[in-house]
């Protein structure tokens, strides 16, 4: 690493860990549990993770402390800038200098994989609510990690399987050139081919440097594929969908498959552009009475007139379960061993207003349903943020990759 690069990294870490979210110096008592929200605060995943994930984590801390007055919780935040070395460096500094006990969120699978290794080494806790690669519950699973919200298998099964069954047999992928994009294409291709479909081609674009997708969209259009699939997320998905409309892909008969899209993306696009898109989320703010109640509590911590997505909800639910389990173990015991805490989390059923009842498998995969939605037309919407209509529900055990198929060394035959 060059001197300038090292100095930049050190400056980023120092700036990220200097104060708690309240702006006050952090307490040093051993009884305090510290959650570090490591997210994207300035890049393409800011709206789908970012401040919303911080807000969800803070809401979990508030509720846990209200229910357990003896519990003390602090929440830190940092921007990993979608760089694995910066993410791993912040994690190491948080553990070594700032007594952080658990890291939350981490959108970007490459950063997530790097952070997971530091968490394992330090025997802390990793609540993965933004990274999607199935490697985190596969060959690189760890006794210190829980993948809470979604993964590429779930997205591929829900989105890819539904479209092939609907007769859209030929596909072309435009993918973000890092771990998440490649994992999502791999998992989707398996479902497409199993269902009798065919992938005609794919192209990977530099991430996160790309905003102009015109060359990639021309390749997709030239392929003649019935489905053009975007294996990306956040601002990249927004730009790609907008440009697909401009290039006439939809008018030419192609279906646009946004393999990972969140409700803030739909809001940014507007219903006139996003209408008809199919997407999968594991949380929708208007799904039922419990999700509406959670959203009402979280709204004061969100941007004005904003609604949470599944990553924000996952940061809340994962943090809440961790804090409940840590309190039941005793703070000192929970701080002593992340692997022991995660083992207790797996043994304890989950239940919260965002996802309802569920459980965590041996490989660290949190189980809950996945929902396939279609974006409403403008005339179907009752008002702001009324964007989805439910097409199908995948049960928890089917939404996750079969336990024996992942190769996780924690799984015993």
Can you give a write-up of this model?
It is built from 15 helices and 15 strands. The chain has helices spanning 3-16, 50-67, 84-97, 109-122, 152-165, 179-194, 214-223, 235-246, 263-269, 271-274, 289-298, 310-329, 331-336, 338-347, 396-399, and strands spanning 32-39, 72-79, 102-105, 125-128, 145-147, 170-176, 198-205, 227-231, 255-258, 278-281, 350-352, 356-360, 366-367, 370-375, 388-394. The chain is an alpha/beta fold. The N and C termini lie far apart (43 Å).
Helix count from the secondary structure assignment: 15
User: Can you list the strand order of the major beta sheet?
Assistant: 2-1-3-4-5
CATH topology of the largest domain: Rossmann fold
Helix content: 40-55%
Low-confidence stretches: 1-28
Topology, element by element:
Elements: H1 3-16, E1 32-39, H2 50-67, E2 72-79, H3 84-97, E3 102-105, H4 109-122, E4 125-128, E5 145-147, H5 152-165, E6 170-176, H6 179-194, E7 198-205, H7 214-223, E8 227-231, H8 235-246, E9 255-258, H9 263-269, H10 271-274, E10 278-281, H11 289-298, H12 310-329, H13 331-336, H14 338-347, E11 350-352, E12 356-360, E13 366-367, E14 370-375, E15 388-394, H15 396-399
Parallel strand pairs: 1-2, 1-3, 3-4, 4-5, 6-7, 6-8, 8-9
Antiparallel strand pairs: 10-14, 11-12, 12-13, 14-15
Helix pairs in contact: 1-3, 2-12, 3-4, 5-6, 8-9, 12-14
Key traits:
413 residues; alpha/beta; Rossmann fold; 2 domains; five-stranded parallel β-sheet; 15 helices; 42% helix; disordered N terminus
Give a quick precis of the structure:
About 40% of the residues lie in helices and about 20% in strands. The chain contains 15 helices and 15 strands.
């Amino acid at each position: 690493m060059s001197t300038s690069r090292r100095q930049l990294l050190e400056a980023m870490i120092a700036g990220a860990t200097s104060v708690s979210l309240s702006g006050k110096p952090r307490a040093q008592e051993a009884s305090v549990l510290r959650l570090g929200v490591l997210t994207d605060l300035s890049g393409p995943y800011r709206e789908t993770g970012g401040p919303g994930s911080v807000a969800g984590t803070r809401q979990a801390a508030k509720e846990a402390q209200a229910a357990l007055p003896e519990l003390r919780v602090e929440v830190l935040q940092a921007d990993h800038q979608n760089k694995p070395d910066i993410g791993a460096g912040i994690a190491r500094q948080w553990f070594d200098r700032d007594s952080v006990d658990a890291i939350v969120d981490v959108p970007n699978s490459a950063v997530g994989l790097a952070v997971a290794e530091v968490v394992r080494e330090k025997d802390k806790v990793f609540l993965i609510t933004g990274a999607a690669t199935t490697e985190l519950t596969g060959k690189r699973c760890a006794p210190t990690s829980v993948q809470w919200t979604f993964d590429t298998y779930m997205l591929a099964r829900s989105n890819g399987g539904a479209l092939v069954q609907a007769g859209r047999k030929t596909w072309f992928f435009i993918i973000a050139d890092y771990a998440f994009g490649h994992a999502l294409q791999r998992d989707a291709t398996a479902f497409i081919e199993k269902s009798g479909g065919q992938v005609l081609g794919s192209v990977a674009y530099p991430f996160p440097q790309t905003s102009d997708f015109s060359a990639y969209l021309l390749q997709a259009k030239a392929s003649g594929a019935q489905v053009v699939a975007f294996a990306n997320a956040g601002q990249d998905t927004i730009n790609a969908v907008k440009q697909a409309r401009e290039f006439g892909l939809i008018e030419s008969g192609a279906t646009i498959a946004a393999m990972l899209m969140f409700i803030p993306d739909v809001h940014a696009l507007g219903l006139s552009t996003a209408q008809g898109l199919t997407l999968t989320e594991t949380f929708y703010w208007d799904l039922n009475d419990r999700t509406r109640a959670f959203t009402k509590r979280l709204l004061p911590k969100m941007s004005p007139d904003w609604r949470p997505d599944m990553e924000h909800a996952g940061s809340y639910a994962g943090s809440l379960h961790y804090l409940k389990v840590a309190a039941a173990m005793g703070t000192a015991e929970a701080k002593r061993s992340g692997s022991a805490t995660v083992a207790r989390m797996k043994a304890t059923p989950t239940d919260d207003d965002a996802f309802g009842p569920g459980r965590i498998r041996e490989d660290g995969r949190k189980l809950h349903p996945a929902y396939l939605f279609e974006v409403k037309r403008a005339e179907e919407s009752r008002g702001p943020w009324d964007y989805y209509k439910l097409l199908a529900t995948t049960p928890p055990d089917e939404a996750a990759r079969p336990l024996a198929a992942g190769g996780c060394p924690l799984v015993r035959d």
